[in-house]
């Protein structure tokens, strides 16, 4: 037995996720973007919500907590460093902690940058990474609160996870991320192949997640900030990769 992941759309471009521990029947929502789609997914699967795991404080990831907690009596777990910004948290976690869902375990990894207390949840046994707005397919989250050095350090920690890891991110941004990535890394064969795959998926009305971390390592410019060709693109040969990362993020902000 293991973990079943259910993926569905929420809000305008959010992904919603339910993770279900087969051994015990416990079911968690990863973030709480919108109550209606989460309730519908539970109904379709015949599951009962027991937990909510929150990655960061932005409204499109926490808005449904009060309604879901009132309806299901769920345990709500969230980042210790954002406890003052998120209501109704029952359990606080931070970098290096492990949380359990029945017989399934999730490692908590700090990924500051998009928000200062942003965390992700990694199911090592099943090879699932729930990255929210820290890491997208072919992109990363906008750096609203953090600074480039710590954000790059967090991204490197995710990059170090096994290639076969499946990544479940917070939003369907892949097609626009691909357009930007091609503008800064146009000769990257892996990127060109991924961009073509993404165009085909979106034309067919399909989601671009989960995505392979190994494939993203080869194609995502933000995971390649220490690659010489990205440094050359920005005229930053010999610079600290964090500086290149900052340039890539600034470029995407204004693309």
UniProtKB/TrEMBL annotation:
Family assignment from sequence similarity: Belongs to the metallo-beta-lactamase superfamily. Glyoxalase II family.
Protein's GO biological process: methylglyoxal catabolic process to D-lactate via S-lactoyl-glutathione
Catalytic activity: an S-(2-hydroxyacyl)glutathione + H2O = a 2-hydroxy carboxylate + glutathione + H(+)
Name used for this protein in its record: Hydroxyacylglutathione hydrolase
Domain Metallo-beta-lactamase: 13-171
Binding site for Zn(2+) 2: 60-61, 133, 171
An MF annotation (GO) of this entry: hydroxyacylglutathione hydrolase activity
Assembly and oligomerization: Monomer.
Keyword Zinc set for record: yes
Origin superkingdom: Bacteria
Cofactor comment text: Binds 2 Zn(2+) ions per subunit.
Keywords for the protein's UniProt record, in alphabetical order: Hydrolase, Metal-binding, Zinc
EC numbers on record: 3.1.2.6
CDD domains: hydroxyacylglutathione_hydrolase_MBL-fold
Gene: gloB
């Amino acid at each position: 037995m293991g973990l079943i992941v259910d993926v569905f759309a929420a809000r305008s471009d959010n992904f919603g996720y339910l993770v279900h521990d087969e051994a015990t029947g416990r079911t968690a929502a990863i973030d709480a973007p919108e109550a209606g789609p989460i309730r519908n997914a539970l109904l379709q699967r015949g599951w009962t919500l027991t937990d909510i795991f929150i990655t960061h404080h932005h409204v499109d990831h926490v808005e449904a907590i009060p309604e879901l907690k009132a309806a299901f009596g769920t345990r709500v777990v969230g980042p210790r460093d954002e406890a003052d910004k998120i209501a109704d948290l029952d359990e606080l976690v931070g970098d290096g902690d492990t949380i359990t869902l029945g017989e399934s375990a999730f490692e908590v990894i700090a990924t500051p940058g998009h928000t200062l207390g942003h965390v992700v949840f990694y199911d090592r046994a099943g090879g699932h990474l729930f990255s929210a707005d820290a890491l997208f397919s072919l992109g990363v989250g906008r750096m609203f609160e953090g600074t480039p050095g710590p954000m790059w350090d967090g991204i490197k920690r995710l990059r170090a996870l096994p290639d076969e890891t499946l990544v479940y991110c917070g939003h369907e941004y892949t097609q626009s991320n691909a357009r930007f990535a091609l503008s800064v890394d146009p000769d990257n064969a892996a990127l060109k192949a991924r961009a073509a795959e993404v165009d085909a998926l979106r034309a067919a009305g399909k989601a671009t997640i989960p995505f392979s971390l190994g494939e993203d390592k080869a194609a995502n410019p933000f995971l390649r900030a220490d690659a010489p060709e990205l440094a050359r693109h920005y005229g930053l040969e010999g610079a600290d990769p964090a500086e290149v990362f900052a340039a890539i993020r600034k470029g995407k902000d204004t693309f």
